[in-house]
Design a protein that fits this description.
57 residues; three-stranded antiparallel sheet
Length: 57
């Protein structure tokens, strides 16, 4: 059985999407194009929303 991560940190999402910095990821979160939860001081991005944004699903 393989397990897939359900969330990722903004730096990981930036790398996945090919962005140079995390500002673009935070902008996507703020505008609602990708979903994230804030845990303490850290955002955890929901990976299914990243896949939908990237057109993979």
């Amino acid at each position: 059985m393989t397990t897939r991560a359900l969330t990722a940190k903004p730096a990981q999402v930036a790398e996945m999407l090919g962005y140079k910095d995390m500002k673009s990821v935070y902008r996507l979160i703020r505008t609602g194009k990708i979903r994230a939860r804030k845990v303490g001081n850290t955002f955890l991005v929901i990976l299914t929303s990243v896949r939908e944004f990237a057109g993979e699903e």
